[in-house]
Write a structure and sequence with these properties.
This protein is an all-alpha fold.
Length: about 190
C-alpha cells in the first residue's frame, strides 16, 4: 500500500501538481486503500456470519434428528411393552378359562351329570371355543398395536435421516450463496 501511495506521489510530481496535487493524490490513494480494507473486512464478516449460519443449520438438523431417533427408540420400547402386556393378558385369560371349566365340571358333577358326554361335554367345548376366540382377538389386537408402534418408529427414523439431509443441503446452500455474493462483488 505504501508503494502505491509513493507511486501516485511521483506521478503527481511529474505532472507538476506540486505539493497540493501530491497531497490530493495521496488522500485519494488513502481513501481507495480504506475502501479496499472496508470491502475486505465486510467479506471477512460475511464469511464468519456464513460459517456461523452453516454451523447453526447443521447443529439444528442434528438436534432434530436426535429427537426423532429418541422418539423412535421410545416407540420400539412401546412395541415391546405391548407384546409383554398382550402375553400377560393371554395368561390371565387362560387362567380364567381353567377356573370356569373347573367350576363347570364341579357344578355338572355335583348335579349328577356325566361331564364326559352330553350337556357337560357341550358346555366345556363351548367355553373352550369362546376362550380360544377371545384369546385370538386379544393376540391380534396386541400384534396390531405392536406393529403400529414399530411402523411409527420406522417413520421417525426416516424423518431423522431427512432432517440430517435437509440440514446438509441447507448448509451447502448457505455456503454457495456466500460464494455467489463474493463473486458478484468482485
Amino acid at each position: 500500500m505504501e508503494l502505491a501511495v509513493a507511486a501516485i506521489a511521483q506521478v503527481g510530481s511529474a505532472l507538476g501538481l506540486g505539493a497540493s496535487g501530491t497531497a490530493a493524490a495521496t488522500a485519494g490513494a488513502a481513501t481507495g486503500a480504506a475502501s479496499g480494507f472496508g470491502s475486505t473486512a465486510l467479506s471477512v464478516l460475511q464469511g464468519v456470519g456464513t460459517a456461523a449460519g452453516i454451523l447453526g443449520q447443521l447443529g439444528g438438523a442434528a438436534a432434530a434428528a436426535r429427537a426423532s431417533e429418541s422418539a423412535a427408540l421410545q416407540a420400539d420400547l412401546q412395541a415391546g411393552q405391548e407384546k409383554v402386556q398382550g402375553a400377560q393378558a393371554e395368561t390371565r385369560m387362560k387362567q380364567e378359562l381353567l377356573r370356569i371349566l373347573g367350576e363347570n365340571q364341579v357344578a355338572t358333577a355335583a348335579a349328577g351329570i356325566d361331564i364326559t358326554a352330553g350337556i357337560g361335554q357341550q358346555a366345556n367345548q363351548t367355553a373352550k371355543r369362546r376362550a380360544a376366540s377371545e384369546l385370538s382377538i386379544s393376540r391380534e389386537n396386541s400384534d396390531m398395536q405392536s406393529a403400529l408402534y414399530r411402523l411409527r418408529a420406522n417413520g421417525l427414523r426416516t424423518r431423522a435421516r431427512g432432517e440430517r439431509f435437509g440440514g446438509l443441503v441447507g448448509a451447502f446452500g448457505t455456503g454457495a450463496q456466500f460464494g455467489i455474493d463474493l463473486a458478484a462483488r468482485g
